[in-house]
């Protein structure tokens, strides 16, 4: 195995050719597709008279457009029904595995691939979805691509790409109680900026990263794209291997031992040279909330909305825009800001550990009066596991709605949407204007535990206080 970073090693292993202009033709080991970005790509194949080059390396699911209250067919939305039917037809014609509704394996594409063991160290992964960077948690390099690139991968199993620089983000120390991977990555993006990672792959490393579970690492890598990085990854280790062992598509028997040896050799070694390195102290990170209209506009829950004087000069125009859109006063505390809707789910935070963390806050408490709160598992497997543990009952008893798996209100390509100027406490990944379905709706990003704290408090609340305070069966309508 050659020396260098994991990114360098995986890139070299998948290089097909060097192209004129400096790009590389890169082989893609796993191609994930869904109903939104694939129809035009399949139509383009038909127009060119081409077939799918490696259908065995392509896996499909349905997630973005599926309703979460009832998934009975046909869907009430005829366009959503058409998109799902088109995906079903294209997969059947080309021999592609589709994990559809009711299969037991359907869910958000970036949730099901890891839980099925499809995502493995050393892979190149592509999907027509921005948050494909999630799969880097396994020591893969994973890229979100556009529809024309989906066409290219279907036709050739490769992509033309330029090689990225690599920045190591090293996190020392230990995260305090009530602080999660979501807080960590929002803190990183806040510090480096939403454009700070442009041209880079982010390697997350250090003791605090090594202490994260696989699901926490997926949250971290999922949002690397929100910091401008094309991909983010964590070196594979014993945590990775323990997660993968026994999963449907993971190697077994002697092949497992060979795979672990191979995967271990892929990790960035002591000789690896990085283009940049940034160091963070995990102990200084508080539960983090976005206040503005980009994921970089984030503060600790115990901080105030920054004033213009506290903002870099080049960021002041978007800060002023955020003040107006969010209707927030510079210098005002974020804690105590009222919310209307509380959403737990998405490819960022819809996994079992996310639901456990939120349920721990909700248990024995009640959703505050006037708050709409709902939980959307990231997959059918997550839903089944959560129900087996009784988490659905915890949420229902607290006043949350328990929904069917899907992308839900992350981007509102389905019936789950904000209305008017509602403010959402959301465990998803983007707080752009109109992101959650209303042109004037407002989104505050935070961890699932923080969303649960907001739901039972009726406003942005510091989850550390709720964790430290015994729950009460009485409704909580003020700050705990």
Describe this structure as you would to a colleague.
With 480 residues, the protein is an alpha/beta fold. It is built from 17 helices and 19 strands. Helix 2 (39-48) packs across helix 5 (147-156), helix 6 (181-192) packs parallel to helix 8 and helix 13 (352-362) runs parallel beside helix 16 (448-457). It is globular, with a radius of gyration of 22 Å. The model is unreliable at 473-480 (pLDDT under 50).
List the helices and strands and how they pair.
Blueprint (H helix, E strand, L loop, with lengths): L5 H9 E4 L5 E4 L2 E4 L5 H10 L9 E4 L16 H17 L2 E3 L9 H7 L8 E4 L13 E4 L2 H10 L1 E4 L3 E8 L8 H12 L7 E6 L1 H4 L3 H9 L8 E4 L3 H7 L9 H13 L9 E6 L6 E3 L7 E3 L15 H11 L14 E4 L1 H4 L2 H11 L9 E4 L4 H10 L1 H8 L2 E2 L20 E4 L15 E4 L2 H10 L5 H6 L12
Parallel strand pairs: 3-4, 3-6, 4-5, 6-7, 9-10, 9-12, 10-11, 15-16, 15-18, 16-17, 18-19
Antiparallel strand pairs: 1-2, 2-8, 13-14
Helix pairs in contact: 2-5, 6-8, 13-15, 13-16
